[in-house]
Structures
1.
Amino acid sequence: MKTASSAAGSLPRRAVLGAMGAWGASAWAFPIAASAQTTPARAAQRLVVLGGALTEVVYLLGAQAQLVGTDTTSLFPEAAQRTPKVGYMRQLSAEGLLSLRPDCLLGTEEAGPRVVLDQVRSAGVRIELVPASHNWAEVQRKVAVVGQVVGRESAAQALLVRLDADWARVQQQVAAAPRRPRALFILSHGGSPMVAGTGTAADALIRYAGGVNAVTGFAGYRPWTAEALAEAAPDVLLNTTQGIEAMGGEEAFWQRPELALTPAFARKALVAMEANHLLGFGPRLPGVVQALHTRMRSLLA
């Protein structure tokens, strides 16, 4: 793979839950033909994208020929892994970005450091950053902004119509469920494991999937403790495949004694998905929510 700079912070690629595969395939079964779009002069011709969800939209709109680089969270579709990499989106270098001679840098507000973005902007590169709000409106914004940047606004509108229909269908399915399980998201990519409180992407995802966040006493992430886990009393635990790997695998995960204090322990109720797929809030979000909702219900049946 071609590399523009160090791939610091990159996440290993792992297969996601089989239940997600069917939706993922259907979402990519209706490509939008590039020939149907007229690229205006203002469209980016040498685009660097920072954020896996944004990269997915670029491919869905058939604008991948305009890509000259992506960050290391851009793992889907598989072709995105073969693009030149500029490192992890939070640990960028101006030299690595500018070496690709982009005319536009597209990312989320998580991209940085800010001083690097300022240096790139000072070099004459257009920078577009999409704010995160951890809701469906964030996905809609990402699609609309990518469409504008690559000059495919009509294709973006068509994609939004399809995604909005998928989202409405999934939310109707979730609303019909008779039970709302208590779920706890654990972040364990490195260092001491932490749990997700309110105001996080994980908190929003749990609620969208028909669950209740077992931790509501604080915002953001905090280290877990045995007392906190017992008090939270989650029915099901959520993690990323990367987090489970960092903890030594699923068997080692369940050997942690503090987990025995939770209702989830008796059922070994764990759902793990690839990090960017689970928390990226991109065009696959309806499938993520449906898979998580289905999996949580099956674990508690």
2.
Amino acid sequence: MNKKALSRIATVAAAGALMAGCAAPKQPDPRDPWEGFNRGVYKFNDTVDRAVFKPVAQAYTYVTPEPVRSCVHNIFSNVGDLWSGTNSFLQGRGHDFVNTLGRFLFNTTMGVGGCFDVASANGARKIPNDFGTTLGVWGLGQGPYLVLPFFGSSSVRDGVGLVGDWQGRMHGYMGVSAIDNVPLRNSLWGLEVVDTRASLLNATDTVDRVALDPYSFVRDAYLQRRAAMVNGLRVDDESNLPKYEDDEDEGAAKAKGAPAPAANPATK
């Protein structure tokens, strides 16, 4: 796909996003006062993703053997632990800092530069962290939910945190940003983006399949996950995700004229 085609897609999608952003919902979620605008940006991101990023990620998974993909993903994840550990330190979470630093050292040495996640295999779970979480631990409220072009789900606080993440990696010599060779650095940045999108293929397919309103599903999952990170809770537990299966079953039952199944009290 050439630059002209990409520019045309982006222009059309952006126009649609602006038009959609003018329509405010009748009953907005208090956490999402800019829902009309956010839905427009979400649609723009989804259009670009389906036209560019998702096909590239699918092609990458098709032509690249699974062991190679796993190695690439683990290396990027291992380098990312340096910034995660730094934020744990800034948050005063010494236990998480020590564990994350231990993960990095263990995977770097025994895991052949991070190619193998031997730390997780031995019970040392990954602790996701970033500067947006650090701001939350320091007491800064998340502010309204915000969907950013290309970056996706965020909030006012996490948007500021993205700037901190970028500066921390640039000036802290962590990750791809520390490489002086520009062509190599840009190639690795591209590979990191493709790897990240490829790791989310199953998740986005699940959202498309089970969510009646993908926008609301992604928003609720994001906000619950971010709250768990600020509060120091596990974020890899499915119980932290919103449950929409009952809503889907109810809608299907109404469409068929049958009574809806009883709701599971555990999901209330």
3.
Amino acid sequence: MTALMGLSSRLKVAKLHLITDVRAEQGDFRDFVVEALQGGVDVLQVRDSAASQEEFLEAVAMAQSVALQLNATVAVGQRLDLADRFQADVAHVGAAGESVDEARSRLPEHSLVGQSVHDSERLSASSADYLFVGPVFGGSLDGVTFPGLRLVREAARRHPLPAHDATPWFAVGGITRENLGQVIEAGALRVAVSSAINQAADPRAAASELKQQLLDAWNANPDMKDFALKSFGGGQGLKFITQP
């Protein structure tokens, strides 16, 4: 189980969520995780349909070991059978995958479940503990047009920050350092990324640059400090800091 902070509190103030495979080709998973988390990643989701069960579980265990030292959270992405075996703190299901209720029935009581949503109907109907909203950029997939910034704006209306009871959500899909400003302007203060960090020559620097943009957006809203304090039950010792 995640130590030091409650999962729900940690999730509410999370800003940068990274989705990564087990990096079998690079063979540098642990080093990559260390660099990404030290750069400012709050939640690291391991998602790799090509990895064997052993490879996947080994990677998740390794990520969890690093995350515990760096006050971060690890999620198991779209492999509920392995999230069940690992007794994961956080599991993520796809828009067309297992249901949130099924995930909850197979995980420990303390676990959180996230879900990807691609349209207005799922955005309003999902009972997940947090949402991925998108894809934001990329055009279309299998003939289906991506919802883009329109759905981001709708999520910002339905689940606004700093409303303390709003469902946490992350804009996702093709987000980079160059287009993050558009996403923030549309109302997102949390994002999930993959290639922006996974394909970077310097993962720590890439994560740090993204995190700093998000921190600047949070700090620009005077109500966010009170939101963070309430998220931690008064927030003794909690303060916003800028990335080094």
4.
Amino acid sequence: MTPPDSPVLRVAGRPVGRYVTRPELAERLSPRPCLHPVTTLAGTSVTELSPADHTHHLGVGVAVPDVEGFNFWGGRTYVRDRGPTELADHGAQRHIAFQLRDPDGFVEELRWVAAGAELLRERRTVAATGLTDTAWALDFTFSLTNVTPGPLSIGSPATNGRPGAAYGGFFWRARKEDRAPDVFTPTAEGEPEVHAHRADWLALAGSTWTLVFAGATERTRQDPWFVRTAEYPGVGSSLAYDERVPIAPGDTLVRRVVTVVADGRLDRGGAAALVRKAVRL
């Protein structure tokens, strides 16, 4: 039986993802709700939870390495002039309640807490939609509101002095296989050519599956992609690429990413066609 706080997403009655609201994790992993496993319609898992190479990678979710100096990503913290450092600076995302819950999605409220104080209040909307007999789309929106009396800012290792490491925001830890997945956008291919660049969509193609990520709002499309394929398979949308992102008291930051989850290895034309079906670009 599925725990009551771990809803299962379904497409036409078929389970395609499980959402874990209260993962039992060590503090240094920055505990947070996440989707895992996420599968294709044929049942192939396309996520990993706490893999050996990065135990703080948790399926699909929102992770930020620096919220006003607190680590909501997990693992070590990048410190300028020192490098990755083990610190007691970890925050956690706490599930409050579901405002809406259906077989194909939910609306959730969360608290981002660190050092005993709430920094951000999040409204998360997740929906699963069928596209074809072999593909479906995960629509993921998060809205972060500063609930403190003062300004907050979001940073990344890149803004703290580590070039190329602008991870933080929506993040998908994909299935690791013997061969690294291929990655491409409408105009480029390969990790060096797509990482840290902006593109309307980006595809990650494994042995028998393809994920196609698309920024579903103009503001989201302004964020460059964070991409790893050689070291591990992971894709994110960078909130803080080259400078910190301020959030004034009471203000809200919103991002929306739609991901096509397909059986088979899509080419550029196939990926573009499914993206057009999933979101208007």
